[in-house]
Amino acid sequence: MTERIDIEQTADQLRAVLDELAGVVGAISPGQQDGPTPCTEYTVRQLRDHVLGWLTTFADGFADPGGQAPQADISGYHAAADPAAEVRSAADRLGQALRDGAAQRPLRLGEAAMPGEMALGMILWEYQVHGWDLARATGQKWSPPADATQASLSFAPAMLTDDYQGQGKAFAPPVDVPAGAPPLDRLLGLSGRDPAWSPA
């Protein structure tokens, strides 16, 4: 069982993370778009499109009165001409939906459904990690709110079952980091990232 979350607090934490993400994607230069990322299967451009495509899908799903996302996968999705504005627009829709109680109902992707509260916790966690992926790949700063990182450190372990983490799975095997490492480094290691990763 995942730990219950404070929906209002988590929504505020997610907004702060997405505001920082908007700055990161807006600062990616054309020359960086084909570069590598910590997600080895994605270039910077591909990861940016993956991140924005799912953000838009999550926002539209939470905003739908029945919690139904418009699509169950984002194959072929391409970010808008102004990716920073796209992030902010999705964050606005998501924030309004959460204020209207969207996390109290399931979020549906195709035939699959996830409790809205769990989906919100998952999104907060994933966007801290993917924000770091993009920032690290493009030489930018990434410092999500400390309370958001601590919340995800509490949330993520219950989601990282053997079905989802390991070679060839959604999450790479965990990476050992020192016990006294900063919370973000510990969250990255838990999520299968090496905090020391560099594109060089």
Give the key terms.
6 helices, mainly alpha, 2 strands, 200 residues, 3% strand, two-stranded antiparallel sheet
What would you say this structure looks like, in words?
The protein is an all-alpha fold and 200 residues long. 48% of the residues lie in helices and 3% in strands. It has 6 helices and 2 strands; from the N terminus they run αααββααα. It has helices spanning 7-26, 44-63, 83-99, 116-137, 146-155, 183-190; strands spanning 107-109, 112-114. A two-stranded antiparallel sheet has the order 1-2. Strand 1 and strand 2 (112-114) form a beta hairpin. The radius of gyration is 16 Å and the shape is globular.
Q: In brief, what are we looking at here?
A:
With 200 residues, the protein is an all-alpha fold. Helix content is 48%, strand content 3%. It has helices at residues 7-26, 44-63, 83-99, 116-137, 146-155, 183-190, and strands at 107-109, 112-114.
